[in-house]
Amino acid sequence: MNSMSKWIPDEEWATIVRNVPIVSVDLLIRSEEGIVLGKRTNEPAKGEWFIPGGRVHKGETRTEAVDRIAADELGVEVEIVESLGAFEHIYETAEIGGVGTKHYLANGYVVDPLTDQFQADGQHADFQVFTAAPQSLHQNVRAYIQAAETAELS
User: pTM value?
Assistant: First the structure.
């Protein structure tokens, strides 16, 4: 599925963000050394260590969204190891001004990348592998790690 074919114009996206919870997937990425996190360059959670994720497109399954987001945001293929279930995330900031809070119904997944050569897509300034939680780890990422049976940070 071509992700560009699912682009929503800014005005329509602002209406959605203002009025509707967004169904999304978030990827907790394991590596042999630890957990892979990206430094966010945009809202929400700008400047914090976070995990890749994004909305589920209409007509797309959650697992198809996992594959697309891994390819789009990281440039890799992944294998799903564990489904963490649904999480409710409400952010006070959004990438579009004037919309108020941004509400996600996020589905968390632990995944293994099939390569460790990540290519950031502009939403993350850097990717690093962590064995211990960084100081600027977002509380929503902490919730995924606590829920995971197959991934952990000290």
Answer: 0.88
